[in-house]
Amino acid sequence: MKKFICTVLTLAMVVGSLAGCGSSSSKETTAASGAATEVATEAAQTEAAAATGDFDTSKEISVNSREDGSGTRGAFIELFGVEEKAADGTKVDNTTVEANITNSTSVMMTSVAGDPYAIGYISLGSLNDTVKAVKIDGAEATTDNVANGTYKVARPFNIVTKDGLSDVAKDFVDYIMSAEGQDIIEQNGYIKIDQNAAAYAGSKPEGKIVVAGSSSVSPVMEKLKEAYLAVNTNADIEIQTSDSTTGVTSTQEGICDIGMASRDLKDTETGVTATTIAQDGIAVIVNNENPVENLTSDQVKSIFTGETTVWADVQ
């Protein structure tokens, strides 16, 4: 590339010399010189683009957020300060109105994977190589860093129940909190809540269990379901994936036996009890073509509130 640019610049000098000698018309000389300069400029731009992987930092940031009611959104906006208290004490979600709203973890990942200029957030346990997790304040998004407190963007995974739980639902909860259940949680990229849990010693009762709620919790719940049904063939488990708020209200209304919530209960969510089964980090994700490797917490907040709108401002 450098040799090409030098050749083009030499051509421009030759054209300029010819102009001085009067060997061609002024208009022809000017046009030739301009063309040479344009080629040199384009060549330099091409070389610069190659150095950054053709990522155009002047492009607008495509912000992707989860829907209202999502536990991941609730935890994200709280942890990054996107949610703030108004003068009257009410909480205000300042997520930019320009954000693309996705209704599940899988849709979020697909959206970011398909747009070089996109940014979003997902459960750390759901992260795969279709997208890239950026460091936050210099800390890599890993389960070890969540466990040791280095990576601070983390939240609980809760199951929600109310009084009158059936024997088989109680037994499934016991399995989740057992050594076997906690190991499954850890094996799937989450942080177990009890390092010294006792082995499962359930009675293997018969019956159906309906579990409903958070799309962040449901992947690991599917793994727990599979393992539990292997030891208790008398049980039948149905998992309905939606969001944390639906998981809580469905439990309150008796629509499901166990709710899933990727956040703590709100003060207004009464009549049910939350039990933390795991800890999970929230990964801030970008497209694999994006050269950005690290963002500060303030930069993330600025992006998701709409204050920062182009990638050049976060380089």
TrEMBL record:
Sorted alphabetically, which InterPro entries does this protein's record hold? Answer: PBP_domain, Phosphate_ABC_transporter
Annotated SUPFAM superfamilies: Periplasmic binding protein-like II
Task: Reply yes or no: does the keyword Transmembrane apply.
Answer: no
**Is Signal among the key words of this record?**
yes
Annotated source species: Coprococcus intestinihominis
Where it sits in the cell: the answer is: Cell membrane
The record's subunit annotation is: The complex is composed of two ATP-binding proteins (PstB), two transmembrane proteins (PstC and PstA) and a solute-binding protein (PstS).
Q: This chain belongs to which protein, by name?
A: Substrate-binding domain-containing protein
Q: Which membrane topology term applies here?
A: Lipid-anchor
PROSITE patterns found in the cross-reference section = PROKAR_LIPOPROTEIN
The main place the protein resides is membrane
Region Disordered, residue ranges: 47-70
Keywords linked to the UniProt accession: Lipoprotein, Palmitate, Phosphate transport, Signal, Transport
Using the record's annotation, list all stretches that form the PBP domain.
59-180, 199-313
**Which protein family is named in the record?**
Belongs to the PstS family.
Source organism lineage? Bacteria, Bacillati, Bacillota, Clostridia, Lachnospirales
- What role does this protein play? Part of the ABC transporter complex PstSACB involved in phosphate import.
Signal peptide (from-to): 1-19
